Amino acid sequence: xxxxxxxxxxxxxxxxxxxxxxxxxxxxxxxxxxxxxxxxxxxxxxxxxxxxxxxxxxxxxxxxxxxxxxxxxxxxxxxxxxxxxxxxxxxxxxxxxxxxxxxxxxxxxxxxxxxxxxxxxxxxxxxxxxxxxxxxxxxxxxxxxxxxxxxxxxxxxxxxxxxxxxxxxxxxxxxxxxxxxxxxxxxxxxxxxxxxxxxxxxxxxxxxxxxx
Length: 212
Prior knowledge:
212 residues; alpha+beta; 4 helices; disordered N terminus
């Protein structure tokens, strides 16, 4: 999957919101430049946003996102050579089970769950523990990411898996939205689709390779 430049600077914008609302454990001496380096610094790690488990809020936020467990495994590779990209920061964020976003959706301005950063390992992989995202009105269920340098994109989730998850109590709004959504309407259609394995009892794993 080859990404395109899309909404570069999403992390920088979210960083500004987190700082303004005091939802980040950083001192006043840390700037947004800290967030856009190739690999997270010690100061960034202290902020709380560098984490594997995205289900709880970090720093001063205390909310918890409920839903069907989802493990997200993404691999960054070079679009030129195909080789894995190690030591790259990847910012992942997505909707909750209602299709709403922490920080930005009405009523969720004081929450920062379901967003975080990991650094790729020697083989280019990052792994996040989260919940299966809901569907927002008119939008196909997806995960959003920003990888350095400034490359952003979306990873769609298969419709058959979404239908199973959205039958679980708590996902009712997303079941309604899924029925109205246009499948893979954005960002290259099936080229954005993750491979998803697992079941409702054990949770699911979404896997995708991203070329930048």
